[in-house]
Amino acid sequence: MKQTFLSLWLIIGLLAAPPLLAQTDSTQTSSTEELNFDEFGDADDKKVRTFCTQKVLYLSPTKLISVGYEGQGSFDLAAYGAHDNTTALREQEAPVRGYRGLRLGFNSPVISRSSFILNLGLTYWNTGLRDLQTERSRFFNALDHGLRSTGINATVFKPLDNRHFLIFQASADVNGNYRRLDELNIGKSTTYSGTAIYGWKPDDNFMWGLGLTRTYRAGQLLHIPVLFYNRTFNQKWGVEAIFPARVNLRRSFGTQSLLMLGYEIEGNAYYLGRVNDSDLFVRRGELKPRITFERQLSGFVWLSAQLGYRYNWRFDAFATQNPARNEKPIFENRLGNPLYFNVSLNLVSP
Fold first, then answer.
1. Using one digit for the tens of pLDDT, what is the confidence trace for 270-284?
2. What spatial distance separates the first Cα and last Cα of the chain, rounded to whole Å?
3. Smallest Cα–Cα separation from 266: which of 239, 291, 245?
4. H or E stretch including 11?
């Protein structure tokens, strides 16, 4: 009986031994795998690089796709030059019942990152002259084909940090009185423009910059300084400007409509082909004081309506696209200054 009792305790001891050994090993393993918290740094010490954005608060919406129509009222056109195939110079005057034409625009971000934004765009502007008396002048006959501009452009916004940025813009436009593709003369009709700006953005309501531009907006090639200035004073008032090209004072009515009062300079050099055995380029520049109303129709679809005054800055015709020394106009022109309107439907960015 005593021997049986000892045998029973021996069996119990053998059965209990493995768990005790396992428990001891587990305790040793846990002590060797303790975490060393000195290897971890403070998350606040790891700074994330940030960049400023390309907009200020309450800025007018950016148009991605625009389909518009512009019309100008009637005015008189007086041209001084050789209106027939002779050297006789005289002034010929004709009434124009108006300018009118389609305006299309497409703009899309190709690369959009916090540190780099690239937008590519396409434009098409058509200006037709109504009821011009072409039989009175070969120059009038060339104008009667209309003036058109087809262009491609690229804009780069490069933030350097959260307070400084660069803007680069380049465009190429084919300008002339062409009606079909086979009438294009790319070499003589194309103009190239560009702008470079270095800017500062102190806060989300204000960004500005200084730069240089090569432009045909005033009708002929110019190299001039440019001021970029976007500022929001409060939820109602702000300024949007790329001076001297355009300046607008903005009045917002909530997030769905706004009103802008300002001006824009438009223009380019248009190739009209050969007139009286000479190449002819019209250097067209217009100053447009205007008022613009924009309103959201549905979602990202906005309506834009402009009413303003078209002041003729330049409309003389020369034998060259760009100014040359001692040049004289082949046709020296005077245009009346009518009212104009522009209406467009636009798909805007979010």
1. 999 998 888 999 999
2. 93
3. 245
4. helix 2-32
Contact between 223 and 194 under an 8 Å Cβ cutoff? The reply is no
Distance, in Å, from the CA atom of 244 to the CA atom of 214, rounded to the nearest integer, reads 12
Angle at CA of residue 169, ends 173 and 325, nearest 5°: 60
Largest distance between two CA atoms of the chain:
149
Tell me if 294 sits within 8 A of 247, measured CB to CB.
Answer: no
- Residue 119, pLDDT > 50, answer yes
List CB contacts of 266: < 8 A, sequence separation 6 or more: 217, 285, 286, 288
Tokens of 156: 């780069």
Whether cis (ω within 30° of 0) applies to the bond prior to 244 is yes
Please tell me what DSSP assigns to residue 142: H
Q: Which residues form the domain of 211?
A: 63-86+103-348
E strand segments, 160-277: 164-176, 190-203, 206-215, 222-232, 237-243, 246-252, 257-275
Domain count across the chain: 1
Radius of gyration of the chain (CA): 35
Averaged confidence pLDDT in the chain: 87
Asked whether residue 160 is domain-assigned, the answer is yes
CA dihedral 184, 194, 240, 301 (to 10 degrees): 40
Q: Hey, what are 229's tokens?
A: 């200035």
Domain containing residue 306: CATH number = 2.40.160.40
- Give me the residues paired with residue 154 across strands: 120, 170
Which pLDDT does position 306 carry in this prediction? 98
Sign of the dihedral through C-alpha 133, 315, 285, 308: negative
Q: Is the pLDDT of residue 12 over 80?
A: no
**Cα gap 212→279, rounded to integer Å:** 31
Distance CA 97, CA 101 (A): 13
- Residue 130 covered by a domain: yes
Asked whether residue 261 is assigned to any structural domain, the reply reads: yes
Residues 6+ apart with CB under 8 A from 144: 129, 132, 134
